Amino acid sequence: MPKSKPIVIVAGVALAAAVLGLVSYTATKPASRDAALADASVEPTAEVYPELEAYARRDAADELALGRADAPVVLIEYADFKCGYCAQFARNTEPRLVKKYVDDGTLRIEWRNFPIFGEESEAAARASWAAGQQGRFWEFHRAAYAEGVKEKGFGADRLAALAKEAGVRDLARFARDAQSAAARESVSADQEQGYSLGATSTPSFLVNGRPLAGAQPLDAFTRAIEAAARTAKAKGTKAAGPSASPTEAGAVGGATTR
Predict the structure, then answer these.
(1) What value does the mean pLDDT of the chain take?
(2) How do strand 73-79 and strand 204-207 relate by DSSP bridges?
(3) How many CA atoms lie within 13 A of 102 on its CB side?
(4) Terminal Cα distance for the chain, rounded
């Protein structure tokens, strides 16, 4: 019996990967994406894969996360700083989720760097990790996703300027960290996790094991989060892992939770 568990988990992940891959493709088809985003009733999949809840790290020391480590719901976001739809989510939807769900302890948001648009995407991902080493990931995230920023590119000088804007104090250390093996390993690990789930576009999400793809309307995230919260409450279980108060985790769009 113990030997069968890994097989079940692998099967569940494989099925979810197929679902997320299909959802990613559908959500990014040129003819359908705008219509899908305009329809607040769109919910890519109602399926929940409990095995995928284990992808949540729930590390209270994770600088690339917002909210309590023991929050009942974890939203994992796989995103690229050169992705316009990721920027749309970061500017328009994420701050509202933070205010409504992170601040009251219901939701934790965990970021995964998933650069898919080439060298500048990779560089921006490493830079975001480097900013996080000085406790400024979410400030860098906000600066990098500001209106019109991605059009200016993410060359070394621009990344340094964004780090300065984000309040990174030691820019020399920031530059070293961004080029370090640790930064590359972190980004690579996030990428591998995303690819293992079948993500083919950004942004892609998991909400307590429920795949969502694309910059869906706020209502789609609200439904997924509230459904996950109800399920967690019904189970009467609290998430495992070290806890962190809602004020220990960073800031998005001006909503302070560090």
Answers:
(1) 82
(2) antiparallel
(3) 29
(4) 44
* CA-based nearest residue to 123, from 192, 177, 75: 177
3-state SS, 105-170, equals CCEEEEEEECCCCCHHHHHHHHHHHHHHCCCCHHHHHHHHCCCCCHHHCCCHHHHHHHHHHCCCCC
What is the chain's Cα-based Rg? Answer: 18
User: Interhelix angle for 156-165 vs 119-132, to 10°?
Assistant: 30
Q: Write the pLDDT tens digit of every residue in 69-90.
A: 999 999 999 999 999 999 999 9
Helix 30-38 × helix 4-28 angle, to 10°: 100
Q: What is the pLDDT of residue 20?
A: 56
User: What pLDDT score was predicted for residue 129?
Assistant: 98
Residues 6+ apart with CB under 8 A from 164: 171
pLDDT given at position 254: 39
Domains of the chain: 4-241 (3.40.30.10)
Give the per-residue pLDDT at 26.
39
Distance between CA 126 and CA 135 in Å, rounded? 14
